[in-house]
Amino acid sequence: METAYFGRRYMLSASHRLHSEALSDDANRATFGKCNNPHGHGHNYVIEVLVGGPVDAETGMVMNMATLDGVVQTSILQRFDHTNLNFDPLFVNRVPTTENLCREVYSVLKFVLPTVKLEHVRVEETENNFFQFYGE
Amino acid sequence: METAYFGRRYMLSASHRLHSEALSDDANRATFGKCNNPHGHGHNYVIEVLVGGPVDAETGMVMNMATLDGVVQTSILQRFDHTNLNFDPLFVNRVPTTENLCREVYSVLKFVLPTVKLEHVRVEETENNFFQFYGE
Amino acid sequence: METAYFGRRYMLSASHRLHSEALSDDANRATFGKCNNPHGHGHNYVIEVLVGGPVDAETGMVMNMATLDGVVQTSILQRFDHTNLNFDPLFVNRVPTTENLCREVYSVLKFVLPTVKLEHVRVEETENNFFQFYGE
Amino acid sequence: METAYFGRRYMLSASHRLHSEALSDDANRATFGKCNNPHGHGHNYVIEVLVGGPVDAETGMVMNMATLDGVVQTSILQRFDHTNLNFDPLFVNRVPTTENLCREVYSVLKFVLPTVKLEHVRVEETENNFFQFYGE
Amino acid sequence: METAYFGRRYMLSASHRLHSEALSDDANRATFGKCNNPHGHGHNYVIEVLVGGPVDAETGMVMNMATLDGVVQTSILQRFDHTNLNFDPLFVNRVPTTENLCREVYSVLKFVLPTVKLEHVRVEETENNFFQFYGE
Amino acid sequence: METAYFGRRYMLSASHRLHSEALSDDANRATFGKCNNPHGHGHNYVIEVLVGGPVDAETGMVMNMATLDGVVQTSILQRFDHTNLNFDPLFVNRVPTTENLCREVYSVLKFVLPTVKLEHVRVEETENNFFQFYGE
User: Fold this and answer.
1) Residues of C with CB under 8 A from a CB of E
2) Residue D49 in contact with residue D67, Cβ under 8 Å?
3) How far, in Å, CA of D104 to CA of D94, rounded?
4) Is D16 exposed, middle or buried, given 0-12, 13-18 or 19+ CB atoms closer than 10 A?
5) Are the beta carbons of D86 and D16 closer than 8 angstroms?
6) Which of A12, C20, D57, E47 has its CA 20 to 30 A from that of A124?
């Protein structure tokens, strides 16, 4: 049975400050530049979720969009939208880069989406830079 | 010889109603929500075609864009643009989901594009959801 | 007191067929081209609403975004989203062009938004054509 | 002499928390919703500047783009990009809504752009909401 | 009778070199920077045309889109698309800035569109800068 | 160790004329159409670079964005931005198609980015056509 892919894009607004406890203040400024500003800054992140599976013969769908929307709303958007990422437990000992956010979104969705294959998670930080994770 | 990929995006406007003969009226409403409204609704679909092959040494091209445009115009846009998808023979016994539209566009183009490899067809239903098919 | 302007964009998917009872079949085809196809076709419309007023000193806002969202949801999106425009009472004796949709959205919002000034309604039919109405 | 208009778009990333000292905690939550979350959240703002004037016969320009870029860089982006807006002196006694940010950008640019007419400043908070100010 | 506005966007690819015969080589480099590079460079320009008029009661339109497309195709795109602007007669004694291109498009369309009011022409040079002309 | 992917988009404006020395004038016009116009034409190209690697535990990054920006600025943008591609040594005996530009950008970046894996280079010629190269 051939696989079709369904992608869906969500927006969330959050702030973060890039700062590593493992680095000196100078090294932090050198590494993260403006992103190390003490009071943080923010982004409109686009979260793109791509799932794959056979097309159901009765419904013509890979997965019901309302189901995916519900799962992402509950597990991702309620947790991260309109928050400061540095205060999320995930980022207590980890720099809240978009790479790390992308991996976390992938891990969470992998766990809560058991019946379709999660192909990738893509997080766009701005319209000119983005991150992708395939779990491999 | 290395492969290069050429992608091209086309727009088509069409309407559809999601309704499965295999389901009761209640199950249809539960499955398809607003998309089950009796009189249908519509979209501006973006059809993205990606082909791959070696770059021709004389022309510097994977494939002539005018050729691809002609093929897509004749085989896809003349058939689907400004139509109601439910009336296409393809959808007599099949729900006109974008998954199914995407697979059909892939099948048709696979057949009429013999000299390059058709890599994928992607159909964007709105700017926030899309479908992809690779023929595998 | 100076005026600030707040704009908000909404998306709705709907289908329509352009056909005028005042014209012969030939004149309809000549006037509306592919848009006269009997089974209709559809669009993802973007509805842009622009309101103007003084910035409230306490809240720093022209108008609460949640309020505007509620008004547009109730008066516009519930009525038109995922529908066939030709079946709306507005279009019994009127061609469902986007010009006419734009005027209707303006009239409805003018009536239900009494405390701010409705500056314009803009409806984008595709990314390459749009309509605007200022009520004058 | 006829007027031509030159528009330019800049991006800045910043965080803010919407909270008014003039309101109770409950009223703040009711008014600002998720935007009142204590640790703030962020956006990629687009700042659009529109200036107008005659087209110079020698250069064919309304205004040199490099000049405008320099002015906006120095007076707006260095101050607001990658910051938390709540810590800007402007927002000590004012809610950092995008309406207020838009007015401030207008005021600053009006002052530092003496030789062309500043027509408007538009600030897009997300791709679906924006604010405009014309100084009137 | 109230006025409705119809906007339409066209794309054209062209090259230009910004260089003024009225300036020395040094002044040209200082004024136009990279845009003064001797061999020219290019853009995908978006030409937006906005016309206004009453909505026709029979057709529901301000102006037939196919008519506008034909006029713009014949008078603007055939002349400028896939050309080097510096070789157009318009630019023999004038710098081919986008300000000047915008004014010319306005003048030409004003002349060939007698039955509707041409409201503005907007030319986007890149997604971050644009020019507008209202004929006043 | 799992791989994360970091993508970054850059814009460059350049002109080109598609013309092959290996073809007659008639064959050139038949092959390249409007793109064979003698004086050339231009585009705003988007260059998308995708790199992959493990996420560094200390910095939370695949690669420092400022480093990538510097490399692309020096090796790609300074060479191609605001130029006529036909005058680049690369295109002395090669047609300056976007396929060939894409391959060259890939080759150059492959050479100067030794510590991360270059996954792909994508070049968008217009918003409706693009090219990708993976080095295979």
Assistant:
1) 18, 20, 22-23, 31-33, 94-97, 99-100, 102-103, 127-136
2) no
3) 11
4) buried
5) yes
6) E47
Per residue in C24-50, pLDDT (tens digit) is 999 999 999 999 999 999 999 999 999
Dist CA E6 CA D125 (whole Å): 26
Q: What is the CATH number of the domain that holds E24?
A: 3.30.479.10
Strand partners, A117: A52
Q: Which of E35, E51, E33 is nearest to E122 (CA)?
A: E51
- Closest Cα to residue D20, out of D10, D9, D11, D29? D29
Residues of E forming the active site: 35, 82, 125
Number of structural domains in chain A: 1
pTM above 0.90, yes or no: yes
Q: Number of C to E CB contacts under 8 A, please give it.
A: 61
Residues B102 and B130: their CA atoms lie apart, in Å, by 10
Closest residue by Cα to residue B95 from A63, A66, A61: A61
Q: Alpha helices of A34-83 — where are they, by DSSP H?
A: 65-72, 78-80
Smallest CA–CA distance from C69 into chain D, residue:
D129
CB F86 within 8 A of CB F21: no
Answer yes or no: do D126 and A35 touch at CB < 8 A.
no
Among the listed residues C99, C120, C125, C136, the single catalytic one is: C125
Q: Write the ipTM.
A: 0.94
Q: Is E38 exposed, middle or buried (0-12, 13-18, 19+ CB in 10 A)?
A: exposed
Kindly provide the residue ranges of all beta strands, DSSP E only, lying in A34-128, ordered along the sequence: 41-53, 83-84, 117-126
